[in-house]
Write a structure and sequence with these properties.
CATH class: Alpha Beta
Number of helices: 3
Order of helices and strands: HHEEEH
Strand order of the largest sheet: 1-2-3
Largest sheet: 3 strands, mixed
Distance between the termini: 60 Å
Family: Belongs to the universal ribosomal protein uS19 family.
Number of strands: 3
Keywords: Ribonucleoprotein, Ribosomal protein, RNA-binding, rRNA-binding
InterPro entries: Ribosomal_uS19, Ribosomal_uS19_bac-type, Ribosomal_uS19_CS, Ribosomal_uS19_SF
Protein name: Small ribosomal subunit protein uS19
Shape: elongated
Function: Protein S19 forms a complex with S13 that binds strongly to the 16S ribosomal RNA.
Strand content: 5-15%
CATH architecture: 2-Layer Sandwich
Radius of gyration: 19 Å
Helix content: 25-40%
CATH superfamily: Ribosomal protein S19/S15
Number of domains: 1
Mean pLDDT: 89
């Protein structure tokens, strides 16, 4: 067994407390978090998280297929603008 398996998953304690409070109250508001490195345990399934991307928050609904992944995997921090804009222009000229 690898050492990482012995240590267990990393889940931010403040985030776990927020989830427990939300489940006790029974409301369905999004939980705002900056903890992108936290793993998703089965207790998070069915909840909505607002995950910080560096300049804004992205709402992510947690499903069963996301369990075991990190929160940050579902909120991209960079915008892909595309490749080849210069190449297209030079090809059209020839």
């Amino acid at each position: 067994m690898a050492r990482s398996n012995k240590k267990g998953p990393y889940i931010d304690l403040k985030l776990m407390k927020k989830v427990q409070k939300l489940k006790e109250s029974g409301t369905s508001t999004a939980i705002k978090t900056w903890a992108r490195g936290s793993q998703i345990p089965p207790e998070f399934v069915g909840l909505t998280f607002s995950i910080h991307t560096g300049n804004k928050f992205v709402d992510v609904f947690i499903t069963e297929s996301m369990v075991g992944h990190r929160l940050g995997e579902f909120a991209p921090t960079r915008v892909f603008r595309g490749h080849g804009a210069i190449v297209k222009r030079t090809m059209e000229k020839t």
